[in-house]
Amino acid sequence: MVPQAAPKGLGYSSEARAFSYLLYLNEGWREEHGGCLRLFTGGGGAREGGQDLGHDAASFVDVQPRAGTLVLFRSDAIEHEVLDTFAPRLVLAGWWHSDSRGARLRRILRRVLILLGLR
Predict the structure, then answer these.
(1) Which of 11, 26, 49, 111 has the highest Cβ tally under 10 A?
(2) Per-domain residue ranges for the chain?
(3) How many CB atoms lie within 10 A of CB 20?
(4) How would CATH label the architecture of 16-115?
């Protein structure tokens, strides 16, 4: 499996992300390369390996990472994931952040907990 394009821990709180954009640049992408963006459209109750997935297995849209495909969506309102990737995935990705009061307070609390050695 190929590492994800934007690993966690880059210093931004995903809770403050309001919009995400992706421009795929993968020339010659094939379905077996994987790496589709899955956008969940609602539902509930699906299970995989005994674990509740919290959404209907049929209630999603997969966006193939083909060159020239532009995706813009509300990342704070649409549950999403990148499926397993088996080839290099070239994508220009970014986020517009909303620094809501709740997100700001959570960041401050995290910093305080780290300073106190509790996290």
Answers:
(1) 26
(2) 16-115
(3) 20
(4) Sandwich (2.60)
SS3 98: coil
The per-residue pLDDT for 116 is 81
What digits encode the pLDDT tens for the residues 24-62?
999 999 999 999 999 998 754 444 544 555 555 569 999
- Write the CA distances from 22 to 25, 26, 84, 114, integer angstroms: 10, 12, 17, 33
Question: Order of strands across the sheet with 37-40?
Answer: 60-63, 37-40, 80-82
CB 60 within 8 A of CB 40: yes
3-state secondary structure of 68: coil
DSSP symbols for 33-57: GB-PEEEE-S----EETTEE-SS-T
- One-letter amino acid at 78 equals I
CB atoms within 10 A of CB 30: 11
